[in-house]
Specification:
The complex is a heterodimer of chains A (236) and B (230).
Chain A (H helix, E strand, L loop, with lengths): L2 E10 L2 E11 L4 E5 L6 H8 L7 E6 L6 H4 L2 E4 L10 H11 L4 H14 L15 H13 L5 E5 L7 H18 L2 E5 L3 H7 L2 E6 L2 E7 H6 L4 H8 L5
Parallel strand pairs in A: 3-7, 3-8, 5-6, 6-7
Antiparallel strand pairs in A: 1-2, 1-4, 8-9
Chain B lengths: L1 H14 L3 H34 L5 H12 L3 H12 L14 H37 L4 H11 L1 H17 L2 H7 L9 H11 L3 H26 L4
Helix pairs in contact in B: 1-10, 2-5, 2-7, 3-5, 4-5, 4-8, 5-6, 5-7, 5-8, 7-10, 9-10
The chains are: A alpha/beta (236), B mainly alpha (230).
Bound molecules: adenosine-5'-triphosphate and magnesium ion.
Magnesium ion (MG) binds next to helix 1 of chain A.
């Protein structure tokens, strides 16, 4: 879905942490958001994802403000995901069960994603016995299983081993390409932004300093703040 | 030695299904079970609501529940006694020295404990669970179900803690029940009375039963802690 943000601000205890006059994210985008700690990245995506309120401003999804129907079509994955008390299978099946999908179909789809994400071996393992990386993979699988129109990821691959990162990036890309899912991914990993994103936005002190194609923003930033930030990272 | 003799007699009373002994045991179990059930029906929804909703005077309500959680049983018993005593506002109901009075007193005692424990758990995890439900597309009703399911261990623990408190307390049931033989004598009041009379065998038998009950309650908790959904 297409997202239009206008006049968005967030104030915590008299401190403004977000100020985004205008931001448009086209349907089917794969947008990376980068920026230093405390820049307001998480705050922005939480407001877009509808689990945080803004102090002022508007977020429109295909022209409409958030409503219960939209919640059915969008999802978020956090760095420290909350897994439900139950097996891996139970967690991934949950979004389908609340959508009243038939059990047979649920089994088929869950098994498929377990296979794609290399989670078959832990299918029946209890969520609280999983390693951090496994939990993050399960959270991603649980988010993607219902083919959302908007997928928001807040540092989904922090503390994950390279082969698992590859698996996760592949499935994120796939859902963007095959289902036209709009993806917003907050990441501290510039290589990752470079590998999977089409567009990148740089945030600094609550503001969106620069946004555009990754070629431009990462390789050839216009703004001096963006340039300094990217220089600080090791980018081959 | 008197302890060993008392112990032997206790075992004998237990396996010979001594009628008076078992009446005491069953009355205790029923009174606390009823009180825990009554409390839970009110306390679980209230605890959850307090945990997820904002309302005026919420802080005061929370303070009140917390204070009530640690109220000494005799005081709870005294308040209930004054209310139901013949000259009290509810005197016409004739509840003094009946099992019903003991159920009321234990409910007064247990209700805040279950409410407080459920409230704490909901406050701690409620928002995270609600947000997760939202991000996965659960509607209001489904999110509430999800919340209860995710907190089921906490809820069970709260109820069992409340039950345990009820069955093990002496002061409140003694005050409102009066420890009347064959009518309102519970395990704890019997132990207290027999101890003062120097008769230990029944006291030991009841002690064994009380220990057994807390062992069983803990086992139930442990069992459910490992169970969950597929
Ligand atoms: N609940 C809150 N109360 C007060 N201040 C908050 C709250 N949440 C966030 N902030 C502040 O808002 C600012 C932006 O936080 P945010 O989490 O959006 O940053 P971020 O860009 O995601 O940082 P990071 O890269 O470390 O995750 C920070 O200064 C933070 O301290
Ligand atoms: Mg963040």
């Amino acid at each position: 879905m297409k997202i239009k943000v206008s006049g968005l601000t967030k104030v915590y205890n008299n401190k403004q942490v977000l100020n985004i006059p205008k931001l448009e994210i086209e349907k089917g985008s794969l947008l990376g958001i980068i920026g230093p700690n405390g820049a307001g990245k998480s705050t922005l995506v939480k407001i877009i994802g509808g689990i945080e309120t803004s102090t002022s401003g508007l977020v429109l999804f295909d022209g409409k403000p958030i409503n219960s129907n939209l919640y059915q079509n969008m999802t978020m994955v956090f760095q420290k995901p909350y897994l439900l008390r139950g097996s891996v299978f139970y967690n991934i099946a949950y979004p389908l069960r609340i959508r009243k999908v038939e059990e047979e179909e649920i089994s088929r789809r869950v098994e498929k994603i377990l296979d794609e994400m290399d989670l078959v071996e832990i299918r029946n393992q209890k969520s609280w016995t999983l390693s951090g990386g496994e939990a993050q993979k399960v959270a991603l699988a649980r988010a993607i299983i219902f083919n959302p129109s908007l997928l928001i990821l807040d540092e989904p691959t922090a503390n994950i081993d390279p082969s698992s990162i590859a698996i996760m990036e592949k499935i994120i890309k796939k859902s963007n390409q095959e289902n036209g899912t709009t993806v917003i991914i907050v990441t501290h990993n510039l290589q990752q932004a470079n590998r999977i994103c089409k567009d990148v936005g740089f945030m600094y002190r609550g503001e969106l300093i620069e946004i555009g194609s990754k070629e431009k923003v990462i390789r050839n930033p216009e703004n001096v703040l963006t340039r300094d930030f990217i220089k600080g990272e090791i980018l081959i | 030695m008197f302890i060993i003799n008392g112990f032997k007699e206790a075992i004998y009373l237990l396996i010979s299904l001594d009628a008076e002994l078992y009446h005491v045991i069953i009355l205790s179990l029923m009174v606390s079970l009823t009180a825990a059930a009554l409390s839970s029906i009110m306390a679980v929804p209230i605890g959850i609501l307090m945990g997820v909703k904002e309302f005026p005077l919420k802080k005061v309500a929370v303070r009140f529940i917390y204070t009530m959680m640690s109220v000494p049983p005799v005081i709870a018993g005294l308040i209930v006694f004054l209310l139901i005593s013949r000259r009290g506002p509810l005197g016409i109901l004739g509840l003094v020295y009946t099992p019903t009075a003991m159920i009321i007193a234990q409910t007064v005692l247990i209700f805040p404990i279950i409410t407080g424990l459920v409230y704490n758990a909901t406050k701690e995890k409620g928002e995270t669970i609600q947000n997760l439900g939202k991000t996965l597309g659960a509607n209001r009703r489904q999110r509430l179900i999800l919340l209860v399911k995710e907190l089921r261990m906490n809820i069970l623990t709260a109820i069992i803690t409340g039950y345990g408190r009820g069955i093990s307390e002496v002061g409140a049931v003694m005050l409102v029940g009066g420890n009347i033989r064959g009518q309102t004598r519970t395990m704890t009041t019997t132990i207290a009375m027999l101890q003062s009379m120097g008769e230990y065998s029944i006291a030991i038998a009841l002690g064994i039963i009380l220990l057994l009950i807390s062992f069983i309650l803990n086992s139930i908790l442990l069992y459910y802690q490992q169970g969950d959904y597929r």
